[in-house]
Amino acid sequence: MKIATAAYPLDVLTSWAQYEDKLAHWVAEAAVQGAELLVFPEYAAMELATLDGPEVATDLERSLFSVSDKLEEADRLHVKLANEHNVHIVAGSGPAATESRPVNRARLVTPTGQVGVQDKQIMTRFEREEWGVIGGNALQVFETAIGKIGILICYDSEFPLLGRALSDCDVICVPSVTETLAGYWRVRIGSMARALENQCITAMSSVVGAADWSEALGQSFGAGGIFCPPDRGFPPTGILGLREVNAPGWTIAQADLAQVAEVRADGIVLNRRDWQDQIGRDGKAINVALR
Length: 291
Known about the structure:
Layout: E1 2-8, H1 16-31, E2 37-39, H2 54-57, H3 60-68, H4 71-85, E3 88-96, E4 103-109, E5 115-119, H5 125-131, E6 142-144, E7 147-151, H6 160-165, E8 171-176, H7 181-198, E9 201-207, E10 209-211, E11 218-220, E12 225-227, E13 239-242, E14 249-254, H8 257-266, H9 271-274
Parallel strand pairs: 1-2, 1-9, 2-3, 7-8, 8-9
Antiparallel strand pairs: 1-14, 3-4, 4-5, 6-7, 9-12, 10-11, 12-13
Helix pairs in contact: 1-4
């Protein structure tokens, strides 16, 4: 399949029609190039808070619930676009209100109108300590017409056991937003490591550029990237597609899922199969004094 990952700038929106036009343009641009899976970034939905004016968009607490109130309508738009262009879309994540505190929620939308929901598992310090966003539902493997797809939202990609829970996936999507180059590289390294361990494809998307109206987002650094196991039939770098940092637009690459199955069965190495060999060897290391 062809995968498209977005390096997506956030806008100050003055109308819902403006948002519809923006999303329609982005989806059409990827679809016309043959993309079948489109991945938007973490917290891309935060631009919806600007529809309620600067006093809401700049307020950490009010912005959470402003966006949450609009996610259902945003999902309807994504369903329409997915159907119109016959694509699967990982919609930009956003806060979704629960009975306690909001979660950080991504949605996988299919051309048939089905919507799978995946919440972030582990919060960054900002989400936990300042924003009060909490972890949500369990990790899921979405069985779709184009393959088995999972989602690790940003920081989640940096935890090997979360990646291992998605070891049945052909593709793991990694929507991200990072405020520094160091943050971008942490998520990129995590994405590449998950592709190596699970012998699968990972697709990282990023928010890019300034969002001065948001205390939560501010300035973001990132790039679209599509990664693979550096094994037989794939590039030795483990990179299928990569965009320069903070260049808005799509990164599109062809991903051969038959080759994923091939390296899992008979690769030069068998990381996915051999994961279990760590068990019993993964306790705390023995301290040996050499003086």
